[in-house]
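Researcher: Let's continue the batch. This sequence belongs to L-threonine aldolase, and it's 340 residues. Same format as the previous ones, please.
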Amino acid sequence: MIVDLRSDTVTRPTAGMREAMATAEVGDDVYGEDPTVNALEAEIAALFGHEAALFAPSGSMANQIALQLVVPPANELLCDADAHVVTYEIGAAAAYGGISSRTWPAVGADLDPDVVAAMIRPDGYFAVPTRAIAVEQTHNRGGGGVIPLDTLRQLRRVADDARLALHCDGARIWHAHVADGVPLAEYGALFDTLSVCLSKGLGAPVGSLVVGSAEKIERARWIRKRMGGGMRQAGILAAAGRYALAHHIDRLAEDHAKAARLAEAIAPFGVLASPVRTNVVPLDLTKAPLDAHALAAAARAEGVLVSVLGPRTARLVTHMDVDDAGIDRAVTTLTGILRA
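Model: Same format as before. Here are the structure tokens for L-threonine aldolase:
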């Protein structure tokens, strides 16, 4: 048995999800004629209290479409130094959108709106003007941390005062919703655009959505096509997303509990990087006798897969394909390695 804790993207469709995919009603989505895609987009827009949404093949594409909606070429995006949009999207903001980005120091979910406000550059003599701020909820490299609702409200005021757009990379916003009980529509009301992912945590095989106003989403369709993201009978994929929304959000609490079990077992070894709030367990091996690659290799030899984020940084992510027995095995394996 392999216990794969590298990411919550490694899940496989459940039997019910496969049935939904097999029986999905489909059409040509580029023509706007796929009824299942249309239903998914309408459902997601309603969940977040926005007018419209657009189905995209990946979270990176959804983020980059959203950024192009709110930041014109040669203008500036502010985000944190560990944000997915500038860390794991291969420079797409600059390559596709001509967007200049500037970052505040990586602090995960513990961002300070006053620090962000002090970084804003207005229009001026040869200065690159700031047009938008992006945050990540939950924060991947921030150990799955949840940005508090009050912090987001303060950041919304900062954006409004400076007439900036506010974007949310909400790949795991479902986890924040379950962890803190904040309604999705309350999150949605704070942002001009959001990207939300169906394949992280919710178990769908592929797909993310851009959420925003009807005007923005109409533009987003053109940007998606330009980036090669136009899909045809995509209802087969959208059906998996609709099934995930109906069946897999509430169960995220189980993944959070499993992550807490892992964290409790590993904490005595002094490698837990931060308190665990959701389904991500971050490991800081700076003071450990082995580095991240050595830990991952030793764990793999015992059938437990761990994600390496840096020389001394590793990550465990719980998800629906790892049951309690898998967590028990991971605890035994990892504590054995760290104890050696």
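Researcher: Any comment?
Model: The longest helix spans residues 324-339.
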